[in-house]
Every structure is written in C-alpha cells, then in structure tokens.
UniProtKB/TrEMBL annotation:
This is Efflux RND transporter periplasmic adaptor subunit. Residues 1-25, 436-489 are annotated as: Disordered. Pfam families: BSH_RND. Gene3D superfamilies: 2.40.30.170, 2.40.50.100, Helix hairpin bin.
Length: 489
C-alpha cells in the first residue's frame, strides 16, 4: 500500500503544473486517484475479514458436556410389619399410700427414743420409737387388779349364798309336799271317825306355814341372784379397768407399726407429751403410688381396652442412670379435675426398686396404649406431608400412601402398603419425589454410562504423540502466521 502511495506521489510530482495542463486532464487524474484509494481500502477490509475467518475456523471445538443426573445419599430402615402397642407418656408424682401419723396414746414424759430416729431413716416393724414414763400407769394397773380381786371374792360369796338358798328351797318344797300328803290322810281318817276336826285343822295350818316358807326361800333366791349379778357386773368393770390399765402401760412404749421411713418427727427425751399428740410421721416403703392425669380422650380409649390392672413403667430421670420401677393401675379418681382437665389415675409400685423412690418425686410414666395391627415403626423424618413415605426400588424413590396411627415416643406407627423388609427412606430430602435417583448410605454411587459420541470427539481433540493433526495448526501459530503475511494490494 505504501508503494502505491509513493508511486502516486511520484506521479503527482511528474505531473506538470496545473497551469501547464488542460483542465480536463486534471479532473481525470483526480478520479483515478480516488478510485485507487477505494480499491486499496476494500482490499484491506477483505484481508482482515479473511484473517478473522481463519482464526474462527481454526479454533478447537469445545468439549460437549452431557447433563449428569444428581444422585442423593440417604439412610434407610427395613420395614417390619407388626402389631405394636405404643406407650403413652405422662408425668406425675409419687405419693405415699400408707402414710401414718404416730400419736401418743397416753400423756407423760418421754424417757427414751430410738437412737436413729431422724427424718429419712428407716424403721423396722416393732422397733421402739419412744418410751413414756410408766410409773403412774403401773400403779393404776395394780389398783385395778386389786379391785378386780375384791369383786371376784364378793361374787364368789354371793354365788355361795345363792346356792344355799336354792338348797333351802328344795328342802322347803319337800316339807310342803309331805305336809300336803299328811293333810290328805287326815281328811280320809276324819271321814272314818279316826281323827277329829281339830287334827285336820292343825295339818292344814302346817301346810299353809310351809307354803309361806317356800315363798320366802324363792324370794331369797331372787335377792341372792341380784346380788350375784351386781358383783359380776362390778367384776366386769374391774376387769375392763385392768385391761385399760394394761393397755395404757403398754402404750407407754411407742413402736413402729410396719416397715417405714420417717418423714417427720417432733420428740426428744424429757419432753412432756399429751394424749393424741403427733410424735412422728411414717410411710410404708411397700405402698407407694404414682398419681398422674389422663385426658378425657385417652382415658376413654384406655378404659374401653381395660384400665384397672394395666401395667405401667415409672422412670425417675436422675444422673448418672435413670431409676425405673414397675407398677399396676389400681384406681381412678372419684371426679374430673377441672383445673388439670382430665381424670386422676393411681398406680401402685411393685418391685423392689420402688424403695428408692420418695414421696413428692416428679416422674415420667409410660402406659401401654391401644394395640395396632399391621403397622410399621418409623422415625418422623420418614413421613412427608403426614401422608407419604418413600422406598428405594432400583435406585429410585417410590412414593407410598401412609396413615399415621399413633405416636410412640420419638417414632410413629404407620400403616402403609409396603412389603415386609422394604427399605424405607428416613433421610429428609427437599427434592423428594417419584423417580429421584438415590443411593443408600455406605454404598457406592452408580457409574454413569459411557457416551460413544462424546468419546469420539474427545479422541479427535486428544493428540497422544504430541503432533499436530494434518490441516490444523495450533491457534497461536495460526495467529503468528497471519500477522507475518502482508495483505494483497
């Protein structure tokens, strides 16, 4: 291009001045110069376009990327179709069913107490809790026994006098019978003239006297019987006084009525106590109840399935290991508790571990609920929208309709049309859906199939020997060669 411009300049220099040329020749030369510049400009543009075309056509083809399906790793659980009975969880309180306030039956001074008498300590049945001074009560017993002895002696005397009167009555009856027979003989002899009327009158008088004597004996017997009854009544009164004195004397020793734990005490040696004053509070170790509240709906369900006698499990959540005990529901409350909104239920603790519990302990109670047939036990993460579960079949998620029957702690009892042993997905996936590719945790993901077309393209681009393929140069060399080439004029 520069050469052509130099030639044009030389041509212009060799051209005679305008004054020496005709006007027509100067106009033709100007048109020729303009045309030459236009041709040069077009040549330059064509060369640049050809160079760009060569660059684009020599560029290596980009590798074709095939869309790869994403595979999710999930956890699974084998479905086991079974009959399950979920546990209903409640919270309640341990109460003492066999609580007792031990009171003093007699008044007096405390002279002795149990050496281990303190709140929380245990007492065995029959252990001496306290002893009251028994001097007054021993004296009362002695007096009662003496009075009883005197009454017994008086009763014996009255009994002997009564027996004597009974014997006299028998003798008087015999005498009366004899006098009546003698009167009958005298009356017979009077008719024959052997006796006079006076003799008959004397015998009639004798009969009358003996009848009077018989009546007197009968009256004496009644009097002696009344005296004997009075003495016997006195003797019974004195016997009761002796028994009371003996009981009062025995009550000076206050003993544990059963194996118990001391929950409160307010005695000390030297203290003067009154009758019926509370000394200690005890509760039975083998009679602890747990009290909790059931809702109306749960109470109705369990009552229909059998409430009384239903076994339960009680858990006291302590460190380092929870304490547990078994029990049995024994009774329900007499009325609905409006404040708590349910029915109070009581259960008796049974096993030996119950002795470690204390009244007032806040515990968790597990009560077996209704039994459900043909259900599977799954975690909550396996349920979608409360109606779907997914299984793995040939590496894909398959949905199944599910119905939640009950809750058992952190798990759900679900009824679904799933074969026994099927692998139910328990991992929560936001992309969950029918046909989603998944792999079970611990298994290798599937290898995608090889694409022949993609391998062929890769083979054309690869040069294992490090040599250029025929008809194609590296882009850098093509660019350098294009820059060294001069554009055609």
């Amino acid at each position: 291009m520069d050469r052509m411009m130099d030639q044009a300049e030389q041509t212009d220099q060799n051209t005679p001045p305008p004054s020496q040329q005709p006007k027509r020749k100067r106009g033709a030369m100007a048109i020729i110069g303009l045309f030459a510049r236009l041709i040069i400009t077009l040549a330059i543009l064509a060369g640049a376009g050809f160079f760009a075309f060569q660059l684009v056509s020599s560029r290596p083809e980009p590798p074709e990327r095939q869309a790869r399906e994403r595979t999710f790793t999930v956890r699974t659980i084998e479905a086991t179709v079974q009959t399950a009975q979920p546990n209903l969880t409640y919270f309640g309180e341990i109460v003492a069913a066999g609580a007792l306030d031990v009171r003093a039956q007699v008044a007096g001074e405390i002279v002795e107490i149990h050496p281990d008498l303190a709140v929380g300590n245990q007492l065995a049945q029959g252990d001496l809790i306290a002893r009251i001074d028994d001097f007054t009560y021993r004296g009362a017993l002695t007096e009662a026994k003496a009075s009883l002895a005197e009454a017994q002696l008086a009763a014996t005397e009255a009994r002997e006098r009564l027996q004597l009167e009974r014997d006299n009555l028998s003798f008087a009856q015999e005498q009366l019978d004899l006098s009546k027979k003698d009167l009958e003989r005298a009356q017979t002899l009077l008719q024959s003239g052997a006796l006079t009327q006076k003799n008959v009158d004397d015998r009639e008088l004798l009969v009358s006297q003996r009848e009077q004597a018989l009546k007197q004996r009968q009256a004496n017997i009644a009097i002696q019987q009344a005296q004997l009854d009075r003495q016997l009544a006195s003797m019974e009164r004195f016997e009761w006084q002796v028994e009371r004195a003996e009981r009062n004397l025995a009550n000076t020793e206050i003993r544990a009525p059963f194996d118990a734990v001391v929950s409160a005490e307010s005695i000390a040696p030297g203290k003067i106590v009154n009758a019926n004053e509370a000394l200690v509070s005890l509760y039975r170790q083998d009679q602890l109840d747990v009290r909790f509240t059931m809702s109306d709906r749960q109470y109705g369900q369990i009552f229909a399935d059998g409430l009384i006698g239903r076994p339960i499990r009680v858990v006291w959540e302590v460190e380092p290991q929870n304490l547990t005990a078994k029990g049995t529901i024994t009774r329900a409350g007499a009325q609905i508790d409006a404040a708590k909104g349910g029915v109070e239920v009581f259960a008796r603790l049974e096993n030996a571990e119950a002795s470690t519990f204390r009244p007032g302990t806040f515990v968790k109670i597990l009560v077996p609920g209704r039994a459900y047939e043909d259900v599977i036990r799954l975690p909550e993460t396996a349920i979608y929208d409360n109606r779907l579960i997914y299984t793995i079949e040939e590496g894909r998620m398959v949905p199944h309709d599910a119905e939640i029957m009950a809750r058992d702690g952190a798990q759900l009892l679900v009824r679904a049309d799933v074969a026994d042993g099927a692998k139910v997905i328990t991992t929560r996936l936001a992309q969950a859906g029918d046909g989603l590719a998944v792999v079970e945790e611990g298994e290798a993901p599937p290898i995608p199939p090889r694409d022949p077309a993609r391998a062929e393209n890769r083979g054309e681009r690869d040069n294992p020997n490090g040599q250029e393929r025929e008809g194609r140069r590296p882009p850098q060399q093509q660019t350098q060669a294009s820059e060294n080439e001069e554009p055609a004029s």
